[in-house]
Amino acid sequence: MTKQSSDTIRISVRNLVEFIFRSGDIDNRRSGAKEKQAMEAGSRLHRKIQKQMGSSYESEVTLRHTVKRAQFGILIEGRADGIFSEKTKIFMEKAAAFENKKKKAPDEKSEAFSAEIEEIQESFSITETEEAQQKFPKKIFVVDEIKGIYRDPRKLKEAVLVHKAQALCYAYIYALQNGQQLMGVQMTYSHLETEEIRRFYEVYTFEELEKWFEALICEYERWAQLEIRQHREMCESLQGMEFPFPYRPGQRKLAVSVYRSIEQKGELFIQAPTGIGKTMSVLFPALKAMGEEFAERVFYLTAKTITRTVAQEAFDILRRQGLKIHSVTITARDKICPQEVCSCNPEGCPYAKGHFDRVNEAVFDMISHEECMERENILEYAKKHHVCPFELNLDLTLWSQGIICDYNYVFDPNVYLRRFFGDSVQGKYLFLVDEAHNLPDRAREMYSAALVKEDVLKTEKLMKETTDLFIMDSAEAVRAAGRSIRALRALNKKLLSLKKETEKVMLLEEIEDLYDLTLRAQEAISSFLEETTNNAAQELLDFFFALRHFNAICEILDSSYVPYCSVEKGLFQVKLLCANPAVNVHNCIGRAVSTVFFSATMLPMHYYRELLTTEKNAFAIYVDSPFDKNRRLLAVAEDVTSRYTMRNPIQYHRILDYITQVTAARTGNYMVFFPSYQYMMEVTAVYEEMYGKDEARRPFLLLLQEQGMNEAGRDAFLEKFSQETTDAQGKELSLVGFCVIGGIFSEGIDLTGERLIGVLVVGTGLAQISTEGELLRGYFEKNGRPGYDYAYRFPGINKVFQAAGRVIRTAEDEGVVILLDNRMLLENHVKLFPMDWDNYQAVRQNTIGKLTEAFWNRES
To answer: What are the tens digits of pLDDT across the range 499-536?
Structure first.
């Protein structure tokens, strides 16, 4: 549901009928894969059917109608698949079917056949009577709703209620606006593989349509009233609201720039230092713009859980200032599911059974009593109403003006919120993209796809086993399994031929032949999944999803991609590498009125603009640091390197000596970031060898980041930085956390004051030379860009900036930042430093101790 103005709600026809008429269970065995696949393949089939319908058939007809109520209106809109006109003898198709039936089986005596003939004959002959000729006009308009399905259309006994309801809405609106007293409603179901068609046809008087539509609106009216009240309360609370804190230097400039960008419906890139208060400086003007009707909903998009928490706190601060707003944080399914194993079907989960019968009441209850909706209270209401908390979480977004979520709910082609972005209706949304330096890599991953030959073989074998195991399954399922096996065999043969041509890496000039085979395999497996009465193996579903994604990327393949084959670690793959995700990201942000990208480390700015938008006029601002540079020591080591060829015990001992001298200058909490987990453990091994188990000799207490740390482990790690650190004799020691650069502790954590007083960064953040890195390098060089910078240097140095930003979070903080790699002193790195890094100093092993001591003793 979306707002159009202060007294009008806008909702798509599809969202309206799905919301009102949904019922039954959640069942990922009979939905999910099929629905998404049918949606993608169905659009192709739609176009084909529409072209076959002749010149009188008008495709994709936009229809809108506003229902007036005493204090508000409801704008309902959407696109009918087709509208066409026919003479009154609209049952000619049925008549032809009647004649065919008689010719093919003149002696058929079965009751079923006789009943079918009688039905056809009655529907045909009704227009022959004089009464019918008076009742029916010379021409009737018919609304056609097309649905692609994987079920056998012959098994459908009637049109699906939700599908038919869409067509009825369109029929009512068309009849109302064009003075039609009679309307035809045709449901066209077509098998997505065989393209076999079955149609259901009914004729309605305007009075029947009007009565049905009014009942639908009455059912929805209480929800509309709720949304109107929420919107009015939010707008009233925003009037006269002031920024909740005294502006820091640069903060007002930032907030004004955000508001003006939204006002001008533009895109804005912001480079602002850590600690300036970016979250509030961006969120507050966005909400003020919503109060002025520039937008109706704000999406606060993040890459990590910790930044979602910061956004929640910002909303809470504004609520304490008097803001009336409903906000919801989307939690991933596996993190909010109350079951030990996520099994989204009525047999595997008690919350799935009858979920859709109860969920609307759960939503209404929670929206009526809560403004801040997040994991904990969503779980409470889910248990109260016995519904799936994840699906409840998603439904709550429709009734929230603020949505805090991961990037993928907007940008990922497989996960994006179709309730907002999957329909033809465009809402008035704002996208606030936090930590936007993460988005290029995330988007590149979302819009790339890979097909592994060994997975094709494994799936073919699995399908053979499935056929043997399910031999008593339906005949259709067995046939679909056979088609799947043949399609997979043909696909594997093609991949084998490509493998023979590939030594290590081979660029692909075209993929049309491969795409034809992958599409055929996808459609065959889809048919099997639809027909089987048994639960499909998870391995089969995983392969199907990967195959579906591969085909979806094939459809959007363009010059921003590098398709290639490779053989690595014994596996052969075909990968569609999205080298520059700008086009795909820009298509997504086109769904919003305005988008703001912001980060503390979006340097160099032109690099991020080129990878995130195709808009040439996107604005960019650089906000100066408000902090006193004299409260931070920034030094770069001249005599340390982490070059791969120089990784040896000598360098490890030197790094440890730097850490020891820095931490000895002042006891406190420090973090050291290493280029990789392996490097970190090699330095740790040297530390253990030097000091053994003798705690009295250890210069600092060591805390290690573990591989695969979960949230509990992460929180326990960070909690150590709030505790006093002493040895067995009670002597106070420095705490040094060894972490991996680019990992969970290198960004998004906020250790203020004495909780963190120093950061040491080993290396330049550069990724190792790799197949993909070299392909990216070649792509950008081919397009006139510095390939090494785009593929390695820019992403790498950003990780350094992020890690360094863990210290000095507020104006009162002070601390040291030591870069342990002499390559950071090279011109091509120094020129990328933030503006407030102009006071860096070069140091050596024999000067770092005195320098840090002088920094901490400067005031005395």
So the answer is: 999 999 999 999 999 999 999 999 899 888 877 766 66
Q: Cα dist. 47→42, 44, 60, 155, 515 in Å?
A: 9, 5, 10, 24, 20
What is the enclosing helix (H) or strand (E) of 198? strand 197-205
Only one residue has tokens 């929805």, namely: 220
**Cβ-contact 86, 140 below 8 angstroms:** yes
Cis geometry, peptide bond prior to residue 604 (ω within 30 degrees of 0): yes
Which residue type sits at 739?
C
30 contacts 151 by C-beta, under 8 angstroms: no
Both tokens assigned to 63: 């229809």
CA-based angle 96:98:100, to the nearest 5? Answer: 70
Provide the residue count of the chain: 860
Longest dimension (CA), the chain: 111
Q: Which of 34, 302, 37, 39 is nearest to 147 (CA)?
A: 39
Give the pLDDT score at 368.
93
Residue written as token pair 């000895």: 664
pLDDT one-digit tens code per residue, 570-591: 899 999 999 999 999 999 999 9
Whole-number Å distance between alpha carbons of 216 and 209: 11
pTM of structure: 0.86
* Averaged pLDDT for residues 218-222: 93
Determine how many CB atoms are found less than 10 A away from the CB of residue 27: 17
Query: At 722, is the secondary structure helix, strand, or coil?
Result: helix
Query: Tokens 């053979």 appear where?
Result: 464
CA 690 to chain centre: 47
pLDDT at 92: 44
Contacts of 278 (CB under 8 A, 6+ apart): 254, 270, 272, 434, 598, 600
DSSP reduced 3-state for 859: coil
| Among 323, 255, 245, 316, CA closest to 283 | 255
Token duo for residue 456: 């094709």
Burial of 100 (0-12, 13-18, 19+ CB in 10 A): exposed
Nearest to 200 by CA among 123, 85, 270: 123
233 compared with 37, residue with greater pLDDT? 233
